[in-house]
From TrEMBL:
Residues bound to substrate: R341
Pfam families (UniProt xref): Aminotran_5 (PF00266)
The UniProt record lists the keyword Cytoplasm: no
Domain of life: Bacteria
Protein's UniProt name: Alanine--glyoxylate aminotransferase family protein
Cofactor: pyridoxal 5'-phosphate
InterPro entries named in the record: Aminotrans_V_dom, Aminotrans_V_PyrdxlP_BS, PyrdxlP-dep_Trfase, PyrdxlP-dep_Trfase_major, PyrdxlP-dep_Trfase_small, SP_NH2Trfase/AEP_transaminase
Domain Aminotransferase class V stretches: 28-325
Entry keyword set: Aminotransferase, Pyridoxal phosphate, Transferase
Length: 388
């Protein structure tokens, strides 16, 4: 039957976006496509709240966007502070290491985020070229507030790089106001487009730092030398070529960005917050606990939930799937089979989450876990009504 895809990306996509994917592919220099690409770059600025930013749209995944930030901004021996609240923080460290960075990993205890105090203490110890933040770490469901960290970065003359793969278009973001130097994401999450696009917004300062490099970018595909003229050309509605863009994905991107901007980012963030809050209340009413230790640090784009004692990960997820709800398992190797993750971003609605909670209750009951049927639905409804 029809399944509800509730993993933290890819997500359920708007029918109009999927429809756009199916157009007859045009030339990447066709006037219509140049217009679509140019519009997409402009719409990105609205979603990132970065009128001054330089957007990049490149075929690849979120990891390529991370690679691009590291390749273009880091030179051999640069000190980089990696602030980690899970699996994807460490991935950034691994990527930076490949480019010869001198990385320091600041890692929070499981379920917590790194304190501002710890970050500032570390920034005092040496001259950091950059720091990286994972806005929402998809492995733990932890949300970090980038604003005070970006302020610290500024105070210590350090570039701030935000991995927004699981946050952009779902969580609050004001790139220019917060003075974040790079905010990157991928298409398949809250941006609402099938996998295959790396999206990145660079500040004027980031572009300057790249321009002032002493050594060439040691990565051909990721090098802004190749991509910046292309982005500028599309924005000026001129044909250009470096690597063939993912034409159909870019058409879908324009469609989705238009949907996002029509809703408006502030309203969209509010919707994500209110749905996530009601969902967490529903989860708590079943006596299930989530990985983040506080609600303030719980993401609004996904929730990571510990299994109750005695529930087998594979049995649980396959029963959920046979009940037409696809969810994700754990990602942190230390506790991989002890928790599961549910994505709730993009076009997600209250009805979707009611369906998820209902399937969750049925699955727990079927696997022998006692609970009062309907409890999480009632809690969800009550909580959701409060904010809507
Ligand atoms: N960072 C975060 C926070 C992510 O959630 C992901 C994907 N789950 C990535 C980076 C990597 O993105 P991709 O899988 O598209 O390469």
């Amino acid at each position: 039957g029809r399944k509800l895809l509730m993993i933290p990306g890819p997500i359920e996509f708007e029918p109009d976006v999927l429809h756009a994917m199916g157009i007859a592919t045009t030339s990447h220099v066709a006037p219509n496509f140049i217009e679509v690409f140019g519009n997409s770059l402009e719409l990105m600025r609205a979603v990132w709240k970065s009128p001054k930013g330089q957007p990049f749209i490149v075929a690849g995944t979120g990891t390529l966007a991370m690679d691009m930030a590291a390749a273009n901004l880091i030179e051999q021996g640069d000190h980089v502070l990696v602030i980690s609240s899970g699996y994807f923080g460490k991935r950034f460290r691994d990527i930076l290491d490949r480019y010869g960075a001198n990385t320091t990993l600041l890692e929070a205890a499981l379920g917590e985020v790194v304190s501002l105090e710890a970050i500032e203490n570390e920034l005092k110890t040496k001259s950091y070229k950059a720091l990286t933040i994972t806005h929402v770490d998809t492995s733990t469901g932890l949300l970090v507030d980038p604003k005070p960290i970006a302020l610290l970065a500024k105070k210590y003359h350090t570039l701030s790089i935000l991995d927004g793969v699981c946050s952009v278009a779902g969580e609050a973001l004001h790139q220019d106001e917060w003075e974040l130097d790079v905010v990157l994401t991928a298409s398949q999450k809250a941006i609402g487009v099938p996998p295959g696009l790396a999206l990145l917004m660079a500040s004027e300062k980031a572009i300057q730092v790249w321009e002032n490099r002493k050594t060439p970018v040691p990565n051909y595909y990721a090098d802004w030398t190749n991509w910046l003229p292309i982005m500028r050309a599309y924005e000026e509605r001129r044909p250009s070529y470096f690597g063939t863009p993912a034409v159909n994905l870019v058409v879908a991107l324009e469609t989705s960005l238009k949907i996002i901007c029509k809703e408006g980012m502030d309203k969209r963030v509010k919707r994500h917050r209110s749905l996530a809050k009601a969902f967490r209340a529903g989860i708590a009413s079943l006596n299930l606990s989530i990985l983040p230790k506080t609600n303030k640090t719980a993401a609004n784009t996904l929730t990571a939930i510990y299994y109750p004692k005695g529930i087998d990960d594979l049995a649980f997820r396959s029963k959920m799937a046979s009940d037409d709800v696809i969810i994700a398992g754990g990602l942190l190797s230390e506790i991989k089979t002890q928790y599961f993750r549910i994505g709730h971003m993009g076009s997600v609605s209250a009805s979707d989450l009611v369906a998820v909670l209902a399937a969750l209750e049925r699955t727990l009951i079927a696997l022998g876990h006692p609970l009062e049927s309907g409890k999480s639905l009632q809690t969800f409804q009550k909580e959701h009504l409060k904010t809507n």
